[in-house]
Amino acid sequence: MIKQGTFYKLEQTFPEESAYTYYGLYRKEQTIQAYIVGYCFDGETLEATIVAPNVGPFFEELVQELEKQAALWGMKEVFLVMDDKQSVGLNYFNRQGIVPAFSEQYLVFQRETYSQALAKLTLLRPQVADLDSLARLLEGTPLPEDLQRTLIYKENNQLLATLRLDHFENEWGIYGFVVTKTQRGRGLGRQVLQSALRMILENSASATIFLEVETENQAALHLYQTEGFQVRNQYNYYQIL
């Protein structure tokens, strides 16, 4: 059962990723009114979330303060990430004529209702010889700390798919799931996803498993929904700088 409500985009933060995480407190009349957390992995683009119980009276002021602070941090782009049910933010950006730069669906695996047999492909940790192929598949070099949690699938010494498993306590996130173009639409992605699910559930049968996908990627969204994932909510990314 997917719980309802408004959600905040707060990533699992590992100690080695602390250098990429930015925090801020917004005070008004000596009272903390909001908490801001942002993530930047390329030194230029910040994805920020505002957590506040009653942000309505000062939302515009808070956005302006976030812009100023991000500039001080040296950011060239800033995206404010908001649940699409967060009416205060929606109303503000609608008045400004600002539409989301993009949106993501957050999905949670429904283990209780999933009855399919899971594939069991061999997913491996990438070796030095795989790094060039991995960078081409991801269209960029992964961060060293991400590489530690990355898995790949190979056939005939060819790297065909990759994904990353992040977990904190009993929550597991599937990130960076990419299948090489020549294998898309042929069932390999489904088998790799199932194999990753098997690995997680063998590690922890009660694990909460989630992933995110851009709303425009309908093929991936369909795959995830047919493999037991259900949409919990949608995050909109508004560019404010």
Automatic annotation (TrEMBL):
Tagged with keyword Transferase: yes
A matching Pfam family: Acetyltransf_1
Occurrences of domain N-acetyltransferase (ranges): 107-241
Entry's Gene Ontology molecular function annotations: acyltransferase activity, transferring groups other than amino-acyl groups
Origin: domain of life: Bacteria
Record flagged with keyword Metal-binding: no
PANTHER family: PEPTIDYL-LYSINE N-ACETYLTRANSFERASE YJAB (PTHR43800:SF1)
Protein name as catalogued: N-acetyltransferase
